[in-house]
Design brief:
With 141 residues, the protein is mostly helical. The protein is 72% helix and 0% strand.
């Protein structure tokens, strides 16, 4: 089983209200995100590009927004912890996913991730300073 398949399985397990290990899976994802932010974001993008059920893709959207939007406090300062290459990949691949996604709900959630993350970054002067750029440079035009 590929790493992407394993991540998709964890996301699927979190969605199951009857799963006894739901909390443990959530904690595992949080620990993984904090331990290797680049791999976490890249893995979620791979799930969104893959052939997974819509609910798993929606969960990937939730975790991306929770990790990268400064409007959400689930995984603080994650955007500053991912590499410039991962930031660029996120910015490009989320748009590619929107264009390729067939399911309207998933497409809308992807667009919500893009808008939420971009808006939160463009309003965060402290984050821009930490990255050594202006707020206008934080998200590409």
């Amino acid at each position: 089983m590929s790493e992407t398949d394993q991540l998709a399985k964890v996301l699927e397990n979190i969605l199951n209200p009857l799963a006894t290990d739901r909390k443990a899976n959530e904690e595992m994802l949080t620990t993984s995100a904090k331990g290797n932010p680049d791999a976490f974001v890249s893995g979620l993008l791979a799930v969104l590009k893959g052939n997974y059920v819509d609910a798993v893709k929606q969960s990937a959207c939730f975790w991306l927004k929770n990790a990268l939007s400064t409007f959400h406090s689930g995984l603080d300062d994650m955007y500053t912890k991912i590499s410039p290459d991962t930031r660029t990949a996120f910015q490009l691949q989320t748009f590619e996913c929107v264009a390729a996604e067939q399911n309207k709900v998933v497409r809308n959630q992807l667009a919500d991730v893009i808008g939420d993350v971009a808006a939160s970054l463009l309003q965060n002067d402290d984050l821009a300073k930490e990255l050594g750029v202006t707020t206008e440079q934080i998200w590409p035009n």
